Amino acid sequence: MKHLSKTVIIGTCMLLTSASAAWAEDVTAEGLMERLEGVAPAAVLEDATLLHFPAEGEMMTLREGGNGWTCMYPGTDPMCADAAAMSFLDAWMKKEDPPETLGFVYMLLGDEGASNTDPYATEETADNQWVVAGPHVMVVGPEAKPMLDSYPQEVPEGASQPWVMWPGTPYAHLMIPIE
Prior knowledge:
By secondary structure, the chain is an alpha+beta fold. The protein has two domains: 6-82, no CATH class; 110-177, no CATH class. It is built from five helices and ten strands. It has an eight-stranded mixed β-sheet with strand order 2-1-3-4-5-8-10-9. A two-stranded antiparallel ribbon has the order 6-7. A hairpin with a 6-residue loop joins strand 3 (69-72) and strand 4 (79-82). The two termini are 30 Å apart.
């Protein structure tokens, strides 16, 4: 986590959320933990690094974790990502090739929507297959390629079965809905 720049993390989180509204009030680690409740298993959340994105100013680390996970609530799409997934997100933001690793992201509170075809879209268009996903996890990174070949490249009806998001790009990853 320490190797990622604050600018990259902030930009990543802005793109991961369709609405970039940040919390206006001061947030404590305890307050953020309450907001993140349910985003990932409690054992992941309890010792994760916690990031906060105030309405004004730079991203803040509210707590350094010890388990290799980073959890955040950047606007509307709360998530917890392991170190490899954070490296994947860093490469995505820099428009670089992702590292040859396999990463995992929990988004068990769902999201507000994203394009299934354009990794950089910030809003729905007539042709970008916008999808709002309920609770899900993501498997990211080039090491997931063999797995990606086995799943649909388009969002299944209702987004209720696994599919590949951003197919045909270096940032293709597996979306796995969790009911």
